[in-house]
Design brief:
The complex is a heterodimer of chains A (483) and B (173).
Chain A (H helix, E strand, L loop, with lengths): L8 H51 L9 H14 L6 E6 L4 E3 L6 H7 L6 E7 L2 E13 L6 E13 L1 H51 L14 H61 L4 H31 L8 E4 H12 L7 E4 L6 E4 L1 H18 L4 E8 L2 E7 L33 H11 L3 E6 L5 E8 L1 H5 L3
Parallel strand pairs in A: 7-9
Antiparallel strand pairs in A: 1-2, 1-5, 3-4, 4-5, 6-8, 9-10, 10-12, 11-12
Helix pairs in contact in A: 1-2, 1-4, 4-5, 5-6, 6-9, 7-8, 8-9
Chain B lengths: L1 H14 L9 E2 L4 E5 L5 E9 L2 E9 L5 H10 L3 H5 L14 E5 L2 E6 L12 H10 L13 E6 L6 E5 L5 E3 L3
Parallel strand pairs in B: 6-7
Antiparallel strand pairs in B: 3-4, 5-6, 7-8, 8-9
Helix pairs in contact in B: 2-4
Classes of the chains: A alpha+beta (483), B alpha+beta (173).
Chain lengths: 483, 173
C-alpha cells in the first residue's frame, strides 16, 4: 500500500520534521529504556544472588554433614525467614533429587544448569502470575581442617517475584511517551517556521516571474541571506537583467531598421517624383507615335515600373508612419453605404459585374477615418479581384456595438499554409510569382489601419471555395457619446 | 525511509516492553561452608541464631551421650559458631547440671529452679533440645524422646519434647 504524500512544500516539510522528531524520540527512548531496564534488572538480580549467597554461607555450616530431610526443611525455612521483605521462597535439592522447601516452578533447564555444582545460575521467566527470578545456587562443602571446598551435591533454589521491577519498567515506558508526545507537538512549530522561511522567497520568485511574464522586465528581488534560495534569487535577478538587456537591444535594432526603411523611402521620394514627371511626358510621346516602335515600348515599360516603384515608396512611408506611431485618426461621422460606394466609384469598379454589395437597409452611421477605411476596402477588393475571381461580394451588417464588413471572392482561396502569414509585410501568397501588381505591403497597411480603429481584420477560406476577409469596426459613437 | 523506520520499530519491539525472560545465566561462584563428613560422631547442639533456635553439628571423638552433649552446650559456641552469629542464652548455672539417659527418655536435673534461671528465654529450650538430640538409647527419633526435667527443690518432674523446629512442647500425661 502506498500512502499518498502531501503535495505542498509546507505539509511535506512539516511531515518531514515530525518524522525526524518521532524517529529521534523513538531511538532516544528505546536506547534509554534498554539501558534503564538492564540496570534495574541487573541490580535486582545481582543483589538477589548476593543476598542468597550471604545467607546460605551463614546458615549452611549449621547443617550436619549428612543432613536429613528435616534438617533441610528447617534450613529452607530459615532462608525464607532471612529474605525478609523480598518475599523469597527457597528449596533445596540433594544430588539432583526432589525439591525440599517452599519454592515451586523451578524449571528443568535451570536444574540441569546448576547440577554440576560449579556455578550459580539465575533465570528470568514470564509466568502467567507475573515475571519471576529463579536462582540455582550449588553449595560447596568445606573441609574444616584444610578449608578446601568441593561440590556437595546440595543446590539451593530461590524464587523471587519481579512485580516491582515490572512496575518500574512500565513507568519508564509511560515516561517515554510523556516525553515524546510533547516533543512531537513542539516539532510542529519549527517545522512551520522553516516552511515559512523557505516558502517566502519561493512565493516572491513566483510573483516576480509572473511580473516579468507580463512585461515588467525591470523586476528585481532583494537577495536576503546566503543560502541556496538567495543564490536562486540572485540567478533570477541576473536572468531578468539579461532579458531586459536583450529586449532593449532587440527593440533598438528594430527601431533602427524601421528608421532606415523610413529614411530610405523618404530619400527615394524626391528623385522618384522627378522620374515620374519625366516618364509621364515620355508616355505621351510613346503613345502619340513620335518615337520609334521599340523605343516607345521601352519607354512604356520604364514608366510602368516607375509608377509601381512610386506606389511601393508611398506604402513604405505609410508603414513607417505606423511604426513611428505618427499615424493619427481623422474621425468623422459618415454613412456606411456612402463609404463603400465611394470606394467603388473612385476605383472604377462596376456593379454587379465586378462587385456585388449587400448593405443593410437601415444605413447606419459610423465614426471612422474615411480615408483609411477607404484604403482598407480598396485593398481588400483589389486583392480579391486580382487573386480570386469576379464578382466580389461586399457584405456589410450591423452587429451589437460594431459594424462587420465581409469581402468574399469566388476564387481558389488562400493556401492553408499561407493563411497565418497573409498580413505579414512583403508576404506573397504565391511564392513562384515573384512579380505582382502590389507592393506586398497592402494587407499589412490594411491591418494597421484597422488596428488604429481598434477593430479586427481576419482572413479565412469559405467551405464552398473562395477567401473571405472579415473587417470588424467597433461603434465608437456608442463608446464616446453615451446617450 | 520506510525501511529504516521498519528497522527501528523492529529493534524497539525486539527490546521488548516488559521484563522479558532469559535462559540460565551464570552468576558467580556457588555458596560454600557445608561441613564435610570426615568424622563419624556429631553432637547436635542448640544455640540461638538470628532467626531463633538453631541446631549446630559439632564433631566429637566419641558417641555423644546426653551428659557430654549438654556439657558441650554449656561451654557455649566456639569461635566459628560465634562468627556466624550464634550465641547461647543458657545462664551460667551454679552447681552441676546432670543429664541421665534412660530408654527413650532423658532426665535433666537442674541445680536451680527454672524460675530462678536468668538470661534469655531460650536457654531452657537449648538444654532440652540438645539433650533430646543426643544419643538416647531406645532408637527413638529426637522429636519423640521424652525429656523429664527435675528442678532443684521440687519433687516432681515435668515431661516435654523438642520438635524438629526446636520448639519445646509439653507432653500430655
Amino acid at each position: 500500500m502506498r500512502c499518498a504524500l502531501p503535495r505542498g512544500l509546507r505539509p511535506r516539510l512539516v511531515v518531514a520534521f515530525l518524522l525526524v522528531a518521532a524517529l529521534s524520540a523513538l531511538i532516544t527512548s528505546a536506547l534509554t529504556f534498554r539501558q534503564a531496564r538492564g540496570a534495574i534488572l541487573d541490580r535486582t538480580q545481582n543483589s538477589a544472588v548476593q543476598d542468597l549467597r550471604l545467607q546460605v554461607d551463614s546458615l549452611v555450616p549449621n547443617l550436619p554433614p549428612d543432613p536429613t530431610d528435616t534438617d533441610l526443611r528447617t534450613f529452607t525455612r530459615q532462608l525464607d525467614l532471612a529474605s525478609g521483605s523480598q518475599g523469597r521462597h527457597t528449596a533445596v535439592s540433594r544430588n539432583g533429587g526432589s525439591l525440599i522447601g517452599t519454592a515451586d516452578g523451578i524449571g528443568d533447564v535451570l536444574r540441569a544448569a546448576a547440577k554440576n555444582g560449579t556455578t550459580t545460575f539465575y533465570e528470568r521467566v514470564e509466568d502467567p502470575g507475573g515475571p519471576r527470578l529463579l536462582i540455582g545456587m550449588p553449595v560447596d562443602s568445606t573441609d574444616r581442617r584444610t578449608g578446601v571446598g568441593k561440590p556437595s551435591g546440595l543446590v539451593v533454589y530461590a524464587v523471587l517475584s519481579l512485580h516491582g521491577e515490572q512496575a518500574d519498567i512500565s513507568a519508564l515506558i509511560t515516561a517515554a511517551w510523556a516525553g515524546a508526545v510533547p516533543a512531537l507537538a513542539a516539532a510542529v512549530a519549527p517545522a512551520l517556521f522553516a516552511a515559512r522561511r523557505v516558502l517566502r522567497p519561493v512565493r516572491q520568485l513566483r510573483t516576480a516571474a509572473e511580473r516579468i511574464t507580463s512585461g515588467a522586465l525591470d523586476t528585481r528581488l532583494d537577495v536576503v541571506g546566503n543560502d541556496e534560495l538567495a543564490a536562486l534569487t540572485d540567478t533570477f535577478n541576473t536572468m531578468a537583467a539579461t532579458l531586459e538587456r536583450d529586449d532593449a537591444e532587440l527593440r533598438r535594432m528594430e527601431a533602427n531598421a524601421r528608421r532606415f526603411a523610413a529614411d530610405v523611402s523618404h530619400e527615394l521620394r524626391t528623385p522618384l517624383a522627378a522620374m515620374t514627371a519625366v516618364t509621364d511626358a515620355l508616355d505621351e510621346d510613346a503613345r502619340s507615335g513620335t518615337l520609334p516602335a521599340d523605343a516607345a515600348e521601352a519607354v512604356l515599360l520604364i514608366s510602368d515600373e516607375t509608377r509601381k516603384l512610386a506606389v511601393m515608396v508611398e506604402d513604405l512611408m505609410e508603414i513607417s508612419r505606423f511604426d513611428a506611431g505618427a499615424a493619427v485618426l481623422d474621425l468623422d461621422d459618415v454613412s456606411l453605404r456612402t463609404v463603400i460606394h465611394k470606394t467603388l466609384q473612385l476605383r472604377g469598379w462596376r456593379e454587379p459585374d465586378e462587385v456585388i454589395t449587400e448593405l443593410p437597409e437601415a444605413d447606419p452611421r459610423i465614426r471612422i477615418d474615411a480615408r483609411r477605411i477607404d484604403v482598407v476596402l480598396a485593398n481588400l477588393i483589389s486583392n480579391a479581384l486580382r487573386h480570386g475571381a469576379a464578382p466580389v461580394t461586399v457584405r456589410a451588417r450591423a452587429a451589437p456595438g460594431a459594424v462587420v464588413i465581409e469581402v468574399a471572392d469566388r476564387g481558389p482561396g488562400v493556401p492553408d499554409d499561407a493563411l497565418p502569414h497573409i498580413f505579414d509585410r512583403f508576404h506573397k501568397a504565391d511564392a513562384a510569382r515573384t512579380r505582382s501588381e502590389g507592393s506586398g505591403l497592402g494587407l499589412a497597411i490594411a491591418r494597421e489601419n484597422v488596428r488604429l480603429h481598434h477593430g479586427t481584420l481576419f482572413a479565412a477560406n469559405l467551405p464552398e471555395g473562395g477567401a473571405v476577409f472579415t473587417l470588424t469596426l467597433p461603434d465608437r459613437r456608442a463608446q464616446e457619446d453615451p446617450p | 525511509m520506510k525501511r529504516a523506520l521498519g528497522v527501528v520499530l523492529f529493534a524497539v519491539s525486539a527490546a521488548g516492553c516488559g521484563v522479558g525472560s532469559t535462559g540460565p545465566v551464570p552468576a558467580g561462584a556457588p555458596a560454600s561452608g557445608l561441613q564435610t563428613g570426615s568424622g563419624s560422631h556429631y553432637a547436635r547442639l542448640y544455640f540461638v541464631g538470628p532467626y531463633g533456635i538453631q541446631a549446630v553439628p559439632r564433631e566429637v571423638d566419641a558417641p555423644a551421650t546426653p551428659q557430654r552433649t549438654v556439657d558441650l552446650l554449656l561451654e557455649g559456641p566456639d569461635k566459628a559458631e560465634r562468627a556466624r552469629g550464634l550465641i547461647t542464652e543458657v545462664p551460667p548455672v551454679r552447681g552441676r547440671l546432670t543429664v541421665r539417659a534412660a530408654d527413650g527418655a532423658v532426665d535433666v536435673y537442674l541445680p536451680v529452679p527454672v524460675a530462678r534461671m536468668t538470661g534469655g528465654g531460650l536457654g531452657l529450650s537449648q538444654i532440652i533440645c540438645t539433650a533430646a538430640n543426643a544419643d538416647v538409647p531406645g532408637g527413638k527419633q529426637p522429636p519423640d524422646v521424652d525429656v523429664r526435667v527435675h528442678e532443684a527443690g521440687y519433687s516432681t518432674a515435668w515431661t516435654v519434647r523438642c520438635d524438629a523446629a526446636g520448639d519445646v512442647i509439653p507432653v500430655p500425661t
